[in-house]
TrEMBL record, chain A:
GO terms for biological process: cellular respiration. This is 2-oxoglutarate ferredoxin oxidoreductase subunit beta. It comes from the Bacteria. Keywords: Oxidoreductase. Signal peptide: none annotated. GO terms for molecular function: magnesium ion binding; oxidoreductase activity, acting on the aldehyde or oxo group of donors, iron-sulfur protein as acceptor; thiamine pyrophosphate binding. Pfam families: TPP_enzyme_C. CDD domains: TPP_OGFOR. Coiled coil: none annotated. Residues 69-216 form the Thiamine pyrophosphate enzyme TPP-binding domain.
TrEMBL record, chain B:
It comes from the Bacteria. Residues 255-469 form the Pyruvate flavodoxin/ferredoxin oxidoreductase pyrimidine binding domain. Keywords: Oxidoreductase. This is 2-oxoglutarate ferredoxin oxidoreductase subunit alpha. CDD domains: TPP_PYR_PFOR_IOR-alpha_like. It comes from Thermomonospora echinospora. Residues 20-207 form the Pyruvate/ketoisovalerate oxidoreductase catalytic domain. One of its GO terms (molecular function) is oxidoreductase activity, acting on the aldehyde or oxo group of donors. NCBIfam families: OAFO_sf (TIGR03710). The keyword Oxidoreductase applies. InterPro entries: 2-oxoacid/accept_OxRdtase_asu (IPR022367), Pyruvate:ferred/Flavod_OxRd (IPR050722), Pyrv/ketoisovalerate_OxRed_cat (IPR019752), Pyrv_Fd/Flavodoxin_OxRdtase_N (IPR002880), Pyrv_flavodox_OxRed_cen (IPR002869), THDP-binding (IPR029061), Transketo_C/PFOR_II (IPR009014). The keyword Membrane does not apply. PANTHER family: 2-OXOGLUTARATE OXIDOREDUCTASE SUBUNIT KORA, PYRUVATE-FLAVODOXIN OXIDOREDUCTASE-RELATED. One of its GO terms (biological process) is response to oxidative stress.
Amino acid sequence: MSELHNGNGHGALSLVPKTDVRQTAKDFKTDQEVRWCPGCGDYAILAAVQSFLPELGLRRENICFVSGIGCSSRFPYYMNTYGFHSIHGRAPAIATGLAASRPDLSVWVVTGDGDALSIGGNHLIHALRRNINLKILLFNNRIYGLTKGQYSPTSEVGKITKSTPMGSLDAPFNPISLAIGAEGTFVARTIDSDRKHLQSVLRAAAQHNGTALVEIYQNCNIFNDGAFDPLKDPEVRDDVTIRLEHGQPIVFGADGGKALRRSGFGAFEVVNVADVDPSEIVVHDAHHPDPSLAFALSRLDSPAFEHTPIGIFRQVERPSYDEQMRAQLDEAVTGQGPGDLAALLASGDTWRIDG
Amino acid sequence: MTKQVQQLDRVIIRFAGDSGDGMQLTGDRFTQETASFGNDLSTLPNFPAEIRAPAGTLPGVSSFQLHFADHDILTPGDAPNVLVAMNPAALKANIGDLPRGGDLIVNTDEFTKRNLAKVGYATNPVEDGSLAEYRVHALPLTSMTVGALTDFDISKKDAERAKNMFALGLLSWLYHRPTEGTLAFLERKFARKPDIMKANIAAFQAGWNYGETTEAFSVQYEIKPAVQPAGLYRNITGNVALSYGLVAAGVRSGLPVFLGSYPITPASDILHELSKHKRFGVRTFQAEDEIAAIGAALGASFGGSLGVTTTSGPGIALKSETIGLAVSTELPLLVIDVQRAGPSTGLPTKTEQADLLQVMYGRNGEAPVPIIAPQSPSDCFDAALEAARIAVKYRTPVVLLSDGYLANGSEPWRIPDVDSLPTIDPDFAAPGQEGFQPFKRDPETLARPWAVPGTAGLEHRIGGLEKADGSGNISYDPTNHDTMTRLRQAKIDGIANDIAPLTVDDPSGQARVLVLGWGCTYGSIAAAVRRVRSAGGHIAQAHLRHLNPFPANLGQVLRSYDKVVVPEINLGQLALLLRGKYLVDVIGYNRMRGLPFKAEELAGVIQDVIDSE
Ligand SMILES: Cc1ncc(C[n+]2csc(CCOP(=O)(O)OP(=O)(O)O)c2C)c(N)n1
Ligand code: SF4
Ligand SMILES: [Mg+2]
């Protein structure tokens, strides 16, 4: 799948130097003490990223993690790469300058649901529409962890928190719908507790040319424990998790007994496989140019997690902002020759005064 | 008809008309003609914030003032000698500035009942005798233009629109300006519309010929070229000079320039200008807002570019948090504030110097930032280079405080020899160091190493949390925070030893009063000082380019005079800093009218202080 998006040599990593040294997860660990609460889902994500990165075979010094502020945003301190722990909500902006000026880097953004969708919402949507080469990992715990438990823009309506003792009033964002609406070219969801799935999504994201948004359901066991339990509980998870795979019929349920079928208004409905003709079962097409399919999939979420898709919703090709910016610079040099400072200063109407 | 030729040493012309009349273009062309003739000059464009205010109204008046002379001059002039008023609104808005006996050229075609009523003239001032104290040249400029263009295949509207070129032609004749530049300009500008091009050229020539043949003008004026140092010259505005300074900083440092910006008057032209220079490897990024703009610039700096962000006061307010991050992470970054009148949206197209305290102190925590202010349009070039030098050498954000007057004003600039420009050494940290410490400082400059991603063996993490001295690891240690706060301050304070001491101009050596300014007031103050001196007064003048840190000798200079006058286009912001730091009771002179000071006004202020001695 990644070849498809990387075949022409314009892939996200084609300009990032490779290493011939064999790497292991240990190479990506720092000597800094990890300070998340014991049991926090962030540990699992950190371990998954550290054990996934060696696969890419990139030089460690050409990988960079940029984060905002929040528990999740402490991530760069624990990665033995270059890292920038910035300010609340602004990581996509800072990473944009880095990625636009350094095609030889693999740039990752780590952000939280408050960081990315509240204070930094504007930067997130603009990064997505620009399609700049950033791999954005959005740790969604549906709560403000670092500030000790206020509700967040992904908290369910009616959430009782310190700042909402009678329940929160505002409707939440669905990050996947938002990203698709913001012209995202790679939009995926995974979950902290499923390392294999998480790494498969990271693998595809890393190779994607442009902005990849990966929502990671992350448990905050202190302030919002069990937020994603239905997707984790071995008793029910297979019944409610829809694992999206490009080119495959969307079938789920412990016994594969449920499927998706198109309903009115472009939406999907859940049906029993036994009740429908196989031709009616939707085949997942993450590469479809029209985002409506991916958007409709994202709308299957419900507060009760009755049927939650995970995996890659959308993965399409569009030139990245940074490669187009480079192309304009190259074109200017090819067309007009490299800049000549003396000629620039003396451009326009000039006159000479003799001494 | 041969005309009498009269020699003048200097002239101030103001072109005024409706926003749609092309007054900025007319002024700009006259300026180019004047520059290439070799006069010294200084300009002051003045235009409304609205793109197209209702035609013929007072808010829609746009003007362009140009002062040119056979000697070196410092300001666009206090008051015009010649006012060109293209409509009643332009007359009404500007006539108050024209001294008695001044020349007034009015376009009578526009003095219709309706247009007069729009601005509250009950009777036509051109006819009712109210302009008797001026030398009025009442000319039907529009109909003369249309008349000259009857043979052209263009609409009546297009013919009427060429009236500014007729006026330009007439003024060009009146002051003996060379015309080749304007003709070439019109050919370029209208290359794709040959009919319009020919019509504009014809209108321009008709204006010139009218001057030559009419009896309305019996005298033609001559202003000899100014004696200026030898060299190649061009006319340049502050925003273009600043942009060139940034390109030059990139070339002289070998660093790619990365500009993150969000459009805002009067800074947008820097974004426009720099986006033309991609062949220098300059990247320009129009961000979604000011926060993203500076964020991207800082991200680029982290990656080893010369990160730059350009804005005006409201944008600085949005960027404050990121400037703090740049202070904390000690990365080079240029923050350019082209100030405009505030607070809030204020007067977007008018000038002010009221962001000094904002850039000095407008951040949380102890967050010192060097501040540099250019003193004239062309000086923006050198100031940009100096800001880049300090930012790179000391790994710090630097604020460059320009303003609307410098940004849009112009003056002749002697083009420097590229080899004479300072070089800037990025001095990147070398790969493969054992036990690399990202916050281990250079003992002399206190600057930390700049280790950019891609450098093997120097992988490290930075951020806005307090860092342990040396290692840069997160540290909550109380004494470490005290140490780091003092180190960041000491680094900036130390720059005082790396900048030129303040020089004082006091030719007689007898002055007891010092006038001290900063930024765009240089020209007005220097012109005022000349007046005072030519009237026999003794006055010392000094001008600050570095506002943080101040030059090392500033305290001693201040204490060498009985009195210190500080004119500022704000309520006394530099004065507050001087009083706080040096305990000197400086005398402020403060006016916020959106315009530069007048030389005469300042001369009076200075003289009063001298007289009170
Ligand atoms: C400008 C600013 N405003 C507010 C804060 C306080 N703050 C820090 S993190 C945070 C929310 C974090 O929530 P989220 O992004 O979901 O991260 P989490 O801690 O849950 O991983 C807030 C409000 C801040 N650091 N800076
Ligand atoms: S507060 Fe929640 S998100 Fe933050 S470290 Fe603790 S468990 Fe993790
Ligand atoms: Mg959160």
